[in-house]
Write a structure and sequence with these properties.
By secondary structure, the protein is of the alpha+beta class. The chain has three domains: about 5-50, Helicase, Ruva Protein, domain 3, CATH 1.10.8.10; about 60-110 and about 155-195, Tetrahydropterin Synthase, Chain A (2-Layer Sandwich), CATH 3.30.479.20; about 115-155. It has nine helices and five strands. It has helices at about 5-15, 20-30, 35-50, 85, 90-105, 115-135, 140-155, 170-180, 205-215; strands spanning about 60-65, 70-80, 160-165, 165-170, 185-195. The protein has a three-stranded antiparallel sheet with strand order 1-2-5. Strands 3-4 form a two-stranded antiparallel ribbon. The longest helix has 19 residues, at about 35-50. It is globular and about 80 Å long.
Length: about 220
Amino acid sequence: MMEISASQVKQLREMTGAGIMDCKKALKETGGDMDAAVSFLREKGLAAAQKKAGRTTADGLVYAYIHGEGKIGVLVEVNCETDFVAKTDDFRNFVKDVAMHIAAMNPAYISRDDVPAGVVEGERRIFRAQALESGKPEKVVDRIVDGKMEKFYKEVCLLEQPFVKDQDRTIEELTREAVARLGENITIRRFVRYKVGEGIEKKTEDFAAEVAAQM
């Protein structure tokens, strides 16, 4: 078996945030291939997250993030199992990353389970009408609609969006990696995003037309 150097372990730790022994094992399992080792740890993170998924998360952090000189604000609550983990820099940095992502990408829901049935039905109806109108055969329409719905979920659901700072990972994968590193179940419970002027209809002034009308 090939020898794994300390510098390789250090590099993998910096890339993934995983523990020393986990990084060493991943590198040995993948023959020192750094990209494969990252994938190995992500898969392990998934397994760890699944094992911890049923555990109660009653602690955590409410974090406020302000972006763009006060133009966008986000409040997000992320839960973990203990106050000890909630106070760690690792957990707080994770929460901050989630808040920054929400500010940038403006998700509407946390997961696809949160999307109201009426919204899902409405989107499917629109996609079906578009497919039929474009002349697609009836037998493939359902498959087309399913594909468009998957894209819709990836656009509006926080957990399925590519992380704004690393498009190769989704927020769900980012969460699983945090679970693997911190050893506790972690859930993004709720968030709200504000943008200055959002929802207010602005009156557009046509100064030239106003002057012309007075002449």
